[in-house]
Amino acid sequence: MRAFIGLGPPDTVRDALDGLQSDLRVGRLVDPENLHLTLAFLGEVDLPTLEALHLDLQQITFAPFDLRLAGLELFGGARPRVLSIRGQAGPPLRALRAKLHSTARGAGIDLPRARFRPHVTLARFRRDMPPDDTAKLGRFLSAHADVALPAFPVEAFTLYRSHLSPDGATYEPLADYPVPA
After folding, report:
1. Cα separation of 137 and 135, whole Å?
2. What 3 state SS string does 38-51 have?
3. CA nearest neighbour of 177 among 43, 56, 24
4. Under a CB-based contact definition with an 8 Å cutoff, are residues 136 and 142 in contact?
């Protein structure tokens, strides 16, 4: 099954992101229920490996920290494919990600080595975006590029299953891993 580990924002932040998306008149918006910040993309994982990972993830400890979503960015170069909002939490977020990657590798999952750019994807675009849509995106960015949401506490991470369809992916939470009491 296709899986990843991420952070789901609280409802107040999800609502704020949904409001921001409502001003975007171009692209395929990510459903508010699917908004998340990916910490480890696991790819296709068989059930026994996923069950072993689940047991290992239960052993991870971390101190709660605050995460702030601020500043819009485009991924994809001259032909942007993704609009996202940056995640800002510094060393605590990077440390949690490092623990998750180490744990996943220990469970036998081969993770790609990529630079970590924490973000929440808001919308996806076709490569052949028409000029009218490009102009709409430009106006949206001019109005909202410096958006900053209030920080929220990160007190858990989640293992998700990803279901792919022609209409886009949907994400099913499989397990939550809260900070130990």
Report:
1. 5
2. EEEEEEECCHHHHH
3. 56
4. no
Confirm whether pTM is higher than 0.85. Answer: yes
Enumerate the β-bridge partners of residue 86: 119
Checking 129-135 for CB contacts under 8 A at 24+ apart, the result is 129/26, 129/79, 129/80, 133/26, 133/27
Measured distance CA(129)–CA(79) in Å, rounded: 8
Report whether 10 contacts 120 (CB < 8 A). Answer: no
Print the domain residue range for 12: 2-178
Q: Which residues of 25-57 are buried (b: 16+ CB within 10 A; e: fewer)?
A: ebbebbeeebbbbbbbbbeebeeebbebbeeeb
Count of domains in the chain? 1
What is the CB neighbour count within 10 angstroms for residue 83?
A: 26
What pLDDT tens digit does each residue of the chain (181 aa) get? 999 999 999 999 999 999 999 999 999 999 999 999 999 999 999 999 999 999 999 999 999 999 999 999 999 888 899 999 999 989 999 999 999 999 999 999 999 888 899 999 999 998 889 999 999 999 999 999 999 999 999 999 999 999 988 877 899 999 999 998 7
Q: CB–CB of 153/13 below 8 Å?
A: no
Q: The domain spanning residue 33 has which CATH number? A: 3.90.1140.10
